[in-house]
Amino acid sequence: MSDLPLRYGINPHQKPATASAIGEWPFEVLNGQPGYINLLDALSSWNLVRELRGALGQPAAASFKHVSPAGAAIGMPIGERLARSYEVERLELSPVASAYVRARGGDLVSAYGDFAAVSDVVDEPLARFLRREVSDGIIAPGYEPAALEILRRKKAGRYLILQGDPDVPPPTAESRDHFGVRLTQPLDDRQIDDAVFDQAVTEAREFSAAARRDLAVATIALRYTQSNSVCVAADGQVIGLGAGQQSRIHCTRLACGKADRWMLQQHERVLALEFESTLKRPDRVAAREQYIAWIELSPPERERLQAQVTNWSGPLSDDERREWIGGFRNVLSHDAFMPFRDNVDRAQASAVRHILQPGGSIADDDTTDACNQYGIAMALTGHRLFRH
Predict the structure, then answer these.
(1) Does 193 lie in the same domain as 104?
(2) In sequence order, what are the residues at sequence separation of 6 or more whose Cβ sits closer than 8 angstroms to the Cβ of residue 327?
(3) Which sequence positions are flagged as catalytic?
(4) What is the pLDDT of residue 192?
(5) Is the pLDDT confidence value at 1 over 80?
(6) What are phi and psi for residue 118, nearest 5 degrees?
(7) pTM to 2 decimals?
(8) How far apart are CA 221 and CA 208, in angstroms?
């Protein structure tokens, strides 16, 4: 394949735009015409799901938006409560479909209009699920014929379908051009393995198999996230990711705020909300999000929400929120050191019980003391994962 013409660059007025392969093309276009951002999301998400698949040995998926994952997950079964939260309780879901449902479900609002990636062949259950969702494209190592036909009809035939080539190895170096200057560096391929859990610095030192799995999901997701970044994970999936902030505490607040919404979306009062019949699924997702964020809504937003909910009985109380969140056990990973204990203070309020971070701050002792105060187990990797 020669140079690949793109629809346009980062913005519609930036055209013509093209993509060129330095060596072998790592993908083939099966349907549609990619844009500049499509390819940035596709290539990052493709590498993320391949790394997740290799690390945990299960089908993996990612939901990408604006060069950072909105979510990432492995293909674990989806329980009844979570299925109701994701509105998939009546769907047939294969392991690869479950992986993508989980990846998308970690942040249903941000995943709207995403770029999907999966580590395994796309089957009919996944294709049927994608057909109903607002999504710009997908990259996968292959497609069942029936699944490919379903996806070719999406978006009036314009849905972008890429087939990644697992046999094309990643380059040993990467570069980017900026204002006439080319920057080159070795590829970040250093692995985070189980040995890091031997580097616990807190009084609590036990990392269960579930905690190690979830920290692997969170930490691998961070490698493909715009920095600064903080990730909260649970049950084999990302449940809150704060990315691209100049302040680390703001990343932590974003990640934990999203994690709180993910947990509260499974609260029985939220699941029991009934909506006027004209509300489509994305509108119901937005309404539940607003219900959970009631205290942040303006008066007009509150009035509109109350008009949409047909069995309105008032918002969740602070006590209801705290009690529900307290029943979860989440993990948190940072892409760089935690400079102050305020990150731990915020994390514990979102049921974080295990933390993984590089360490190296002059405030490491304060952060460790904070973890000891809350009974959190924390280990240091010594490995920063910035991405810009």
Answers:
(1) no
(2) 351
(3) 65-66, 228, 388
(4) 78
(5) no
(6) -135, 150
(7) 0.95
(8) 20
